[in-house]
Structure prediction request, 304 residues.
Amino acid sequence: MNIVFIINPQAGNGAALSAWHKFAKKIGFDHEQYVTEYPGHALKLVEAFKERQQDMLVIGFGGDGTMREITAAAAGSEQLTVASISAGSGNDFARTYGCFRYAAEIQQYLQQPQAIETDVGEVVGDPRQLFASSSGIGFDAAVSQAVNASHMKQWLNKIRLGKLSYFIFVVSTLLTFQTFRLTVESNGEQVHFDDVWLATVSNQPYFGGGMKISPQSKTDDGVLELTVVHRLPRLKLLAVFGTVFSGSHTRFQEVVQLSSRSFLLSTDRAVLRHIDGDDAGVSAAHEKLEYRVAEEKWRQAKLQ
Prediction:
């Protein structure tokens, strides 16, 4: 099995490249390594690996955005197995799918490599968008966009308080965000939600750097979970966010969770979107967006 590392030097607000140099000194086996140069580069690299028709273990050295690109490109391949080494600031991918911590663990894995097939979420469109963890509309997308554009996050990461940046921008976005009306079509039914803060479609429990937004989500059950937060006063929303890390927010009646293979979502105004924490543009007013389990699966390295 060929081993390939894909390193995102921008992950962890620029700390990943230095971390990679330290990690690489411990590697005692043959491998290839590629450093990404622009957004989407990891996806192109993995698509090229598919053409080799070889068994490969593709290890992402980065964060959630890097792993989204790798898994999206690897989906559908029976010869590419995906693993990760956490080097981002959020690392929600690693919380569920696991990650290698040391080069010695990779060496041990190679002695008896195993993989399991894992679902990937899809936002239908041209181009379509695939996600490993979650994709959302509304407040969470606005917060993610603010966090990713902020220099504060870089400074907090340097003092190991990077997760605090998400909470800070939850508070600041809370003051200005305007709620919206959401229509959900799923399983032959149509439901309307008023005064909506966010609608997040999840393939795994975590988002936002450790927030357990969808506690019941499983990565291989063939369904996605939709979490809708609505009819909450601003101050109570802050209280609800304080419970998301434990997953206990689901006890609030204003938090609704649905499960299905697909959801058709539309809003009464233009609303920001995210995909695995990265900017995914805007959902236009009354535009129907379909979120579903993709037909393809990706092979996840089964770690001990």
User: Anything to note?
Assistant: The mean pLDDT is 91. The chain is about 30% helix and 35% strand.
